[in-house]
Specification:
Elements lengths: L3 E8 L1 H7 L3 E7 L4 H11 L11 E4 L2 E3 L10 E5 L6
Parallel strand pairs: 1-5
Antiparallel strand pairs: 1-2, 3-4, 3-5
Length: 85
């Protein structure tokens, strides 16, 4: 069994509404990627799948792609498109 890492996931807009909280604390296997995390989020809440292709991901305040490997203590953000006025 691979060691586990602890991560924080900050949620905004539709993600925050769906989870009814603004942050998740999760454990993933070591060497997990942003894609691994996204797969978990979208399998837990399939209704969010429509947002997957337009969501940006950030790790420790920098935009990243789904292939980015996560490390223990990372803070990940899921940022869907927003509109305002």
């Amino acid at each position: 069994m691979k060691p586990l890492i602890n991560i924080s996931v900050k949620l905004f807009a539709i993600y925050q509404e769906t989870y009814q909280q603004d942050q998740l604390e999760l454990q993933l296997e070591d060497q997990a990627t942003v894609k691994t995390l996204a797969d978990h989020i979208f399998s837990e809440h399939p209704e969010l799948q429509e947002w997957r292709n337009v969501t940006r991901y950030g790790v420790n305040m920098a935009f990243v792609d789904e292939n980015t490997v996560l490390k223990d203590g990372d803070e990940i953000v899921f940022i869907p498109p927003v509109s305002g006025g």
